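Hey,
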Amino acid sequence: MALDKWKRQEGETGPAYAAFCGYLELGPARSIAKLCNSLGKTSGYTRYLEEWSSKYEWVARALVYDDEMHDKRREQASELKEHMRHRVIANADQWLDNLMAIARGEKGANHSAQVSAAKALMDFAGYSAPTKVELTSPGGSTTITVEIGGGE
């Protein structure tokens, strides 16, 4: 399994593995020189780090680690997006009721932020939010058109 590549290797000493963990923590722009500096060691210590790096294949192991962490972050982001989409769907009726109340003038005068937020949330959930709403008075004598988000 790839995950084992960045775990402690057979025969890898404690100090070598601790240095490798420090190497991983430096991120994709890591280097032996940066590791030596982060450990507070003199430049002469790089000889040990280079030896361990070669012997225990730090570069290859770090690439596997980076890939694993990238996949994990991508999976977490996907799960979060799905969770948020479900929350938007669960609250869509309430938000639409609020939008209708705003359109009817039942909400405060400064409602553009709420309209913009509702539109963004609907877009996020994969719904096409309306760009224009037409309201007709009960008797049909007056029609008001409300542009949302600078519609066409």
